[in-house]
Every structure is written in structure tokens, then in C-alpha cells.
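Q: Here's a chain of 60 amino acids. Please give me its 3D structure as C-alpha cells.
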Amino acid sequence: MSELYDDEEEKELIAEDEFIETEEIILDDPNRPPSDARKRLENLLEEKRLRDELEDFLDY
């Protein structure tokens, strides 16, 4: 009887371990190359930041 209980408990643990948050996989994998859309967005944000910095500098 206890053997049956142990099997059920093990099944529950396996079922809980099967769920992996996809956000963690995507964000925490440093070896994954960024997508083209992400690269473009990062470049646009960097350009905007630099333009804002230049405008602030020219205001002085």
C-alpha cells in the first residue's frame, strides 16, 4: 500500500517539474542570439538615447 502512495507522490512531483516558465528560458539564455526585431528595437532605443543626450548637451 505504501508503495502505491509513493508512486502517486512521485507522479505529482514529476508533473510539477514539467512546467517551465518560458520567459526564464528566453531571458536567461545568454547563448541565444537576439532576434532581428529585438536588435532593431535596441538600436532605435540607443539612437534615441544618444539624440537626447546630444540635445541636452547642446542646450548648455
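Q: Can you summarize the key feature?
A: The longest helix spans residues 36-59.
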